[in-house]
From TrEMBL:
PANTHER family: 5-FORMYLTETRAHYDROFOLATE CYCLO-LIGASE, ATPASE INHIBITOR/5-FORMYLTETRAHYDROFOLATE CYCLO-LIGASE. Its cofactor is Mg(2+). InterPro entries: FTHF_cligase, FTHF_cligase-like_sf, NagB/RpiA_transferase-like. One of its GO terms (molecular function) is 5-formyltetrahydrofolate cyclo-ligase activity. Gene3D superfamilies: NagB/RpiA/CoA transferase-like (3.40.50.10420). This is 5-formyltetrahydrofolate cyclo-ligase. It catalyses: (6S)-5-formyl-5,6,7,8-tetrahydrofolate + ATP = (6R)-5,10-methenyltetrahydrofolate + ADP + phosphate. SUPFAM superfamilies: NagB/RpiA/CoA transferase-like. Keywords: ATP-binding, Ligase, Magnesium, Metal-binding, Nucleotide-binding. It comes from Microbacterium candidum. Its EC number is 6.3.3.2. Belongs to the 5-formyltetrahydrofolate cyclo-ligase family.
Length: 198
């Protein structure tokens, strides 16, 4: 990674994190309600029976109610569990299951772990992002878990980044290892990216 790209990513992530932290609780709750409706619509669009999603932190776009409701609708939801080797294991969401702090402070399920190959069964992937640009490039938080996961899949289903509306940007800094996404889901819209390689 070139120093210029590295510095640009670091600065943009810091700005985006600061904006998220500045959001009021009421704004976060309203965004989570709207986001849930769009996530439900996307699942229905793909007739997805198995999906991946993530358990949001307090400052991320809220996914927890969506996950609980999806499980209640009979959808199998795979939640990521970080590993020290940079890959992701997966666990099936259980609203009654225990949640603990993962390697980097992300909430993760506790219980039976499925290996990285479990994702091959998914019809739709909903992944976290710091931002996404209008060409479908995703800016993650710098640890590479999802880029490695997407880059290693032989048959990748549609992949949507979950972000706030203000995090859909004209362009984000990118490197050769960064993986594009099919689209983005925000509290107000579902966006498809024409140039995405997925």
């Amino acid at each position: 990674m070139g120093d210029g790209t590295d510095n640009a990513k670091r600065a943009l992530r810091a700005d985006l994190r600061e904006r998220r932290q500045a959001m009021s609780q009421s704004a976060r709750e309203a965004a989570a309600d709207s986001l849930r409706r769009n996530l439900d619509a996307l699942v229905d669009r793909f007739s997805a029976r198995t999906i991946s999603c993530f358990l949001s932190t307090p400052i991320e776009p809220g996914t927890r109610r969506f996950v609980t409701d999806a499980v209640g609708r009979g959808i199998r939801v795979l939640l990521p569990v970080t590993r020290a080797d940079g890959l992701l294991d997966w666990a099936v969401a259980d609203p009654e299951g225990e949640i603990a702090e993962g390697l980097f402070g992300q909430p993760e399920p506790v219980g039976e772990l499925l290996g990285p190959i479990a994702l091959d069964e998914a019809d739709l992937l909903l992944i976290p992002a710091a931002a996404v640009d209008r060409t479908g490039m995703r800016l993650g938080w710098g640890r590479g878990f999802f880029d490695k996961t997407l880059g290693s899949m032989n048959h990748c289903p549609p992949v949507y980044a979950v972000v706030y509306d203000s995090e859909v940007l004209d362009i984000v800094p990118r490197d050769a290892h960064d993986e594009p996404v099919t689209g983005a889901v925000t509290p107000t819209q579902i966006i498809e990216f024409e140039r995405s390689a997925r």
